[in-house]
Write a structure and sequence with these properties.
single chain, alpha+beta, 10-stranded antiparallel β-sheet, 5 helices
């Protein structure tokens, strides 16, 4: 237990482009001052779609909750099909662009909150340790570092073995919690079960967001283009004639609406620090939900506009589960 050339085709080309390291705030030539004035939620992030599996091995999703405080995101509870006294809680909430070091600091802060919680008379927590999960497949396959720990918690005279796994993917924290009575499962086995569960979550889930994090450079139409001009990042031609040229802050093209200009716009984003993993255009925010999957829709208002609490039973068009 736990304690409480289509646009899609162009995005595929983007995904195949060379990856690049990102700072906590993406560095773009023309956005520095604007970024400091843009709120994280309701600005940098405006909408998110989380698609997650309804079933993971013996675990079945039973309930979903959207939190009143929008920065807390959403959680899903999974129940064990046979051992009804066991469940795992899965959390998705906004993180931004974090390094592994910052992820570790965030997890340590979360664990410190457990140590100080009045709900536990004792909380013995092992040091966090990295664990590597695989995300995606083929050309988009990548390794993601998560942090994992096991715990011994005492609450109201009852001792529990507990585990936590936490990672950042596509601008979001993904966190798992699993606790069982001490006599039911060893501390190490508790941690291993959660790590196995979270590996499947990372492998099978998809997160997409949009907002000011989506920053394609503007396309400027020009009567003529200069070959090998200073600051040029890339160029393309059509029938031997230079048709589109990428710079850090713009795309110059003979025809601003041409496929060459649009492809160059997207392919130049990693080169100029404009590509934020997990962020895409608003028109790609309605993906098809596969069978046996469920979609959470998160919409973020400006800081002054708080969303009301939403809690609902599971339902999906694909499976008819309710």
């Amino acid at each position: 237990m736990s304690f409480p050339c289509t646009r899609s085709g162009l995005l595929l080309l983007m995904a195949l482009a060379a990856p690049m390291a990102m700072a906590q705030t993406p560095a773009t030539p023309d956005a520095g001052s604007a970024q400091t004035q843009t709120p994280f939620l309701g600005g940098f992030l405006k909408e998110t779609r989380v698609i997650y599996p309804l079933r993971i091995a013996e675990w079945q999703a039973q309930g979903e909750h959207l939190y009143e405080q929008q920065e807390l995101g959403a959680s899903v509870r999974y129940m064990h099909n046979l051992q009804k006294d066991r469940w795992m809680d899965l959390y998705f909430y906004p993180a931004g662009i974090l390094t592994n070091e910052q992820l570790g600091e965030a997890m340590e802060s979360t664990l410190e909150g457990l140590r100080l919680s009045a709900g536990y008379s004792a909380a013995d927590i092992d040091p966090i340790a990295p664990v590597v999960f695989t995300q995606g497949s083929g050309a988009q396959k990548q390794k993601i570092t998560a942090y994992s720990t096991s715990m011994r918690l005492v609450r109201e005279g009852q001792t529990y073995h507990s585990a936590m796994v936490m990672l950042v993917s596509d601008l979001y924290f993904i966190k798992g919690r699993f606790s069982v009575e001490e006599k039911s499962l060893s501390q190490r086995a508790t941690q291993k079960q959660l790590e196995k569960f979270m590996a499947a979550v990372v492998r099978e889930s998809t997160l997409r967001s949009t907002g000011d994090c989506w920053m394609p450079p503007p396309i400027v139409e020009k009567a003529a283009l200069i070959k090998d001009a200073p600051g040029q990042l890339a160029a393309t031609d059509k029938d031997g004639v230079l048709s589109a040229v990428a710079y850090a802050d713009r795309i110059e093209a003979l025809d601003a609406k041409s496929s060459e200009a649009i492809v160059m716009q997207f392919l130049s984003m990693p080169m100029s620090g404009r590509l934020v993993p997990g962020c895409g255009p608003a028109e790609d925010m309605n993906p098809e939900v596969p069978k046996d999957m469920r979609e959470i829709r998160l919409e973020f208002g400006a800081p002054s506009g708080e969303k009301g609490n939403q809690s609902m039973p599971l339902r999906t068009r694909a499976t008819g589960v309710s």
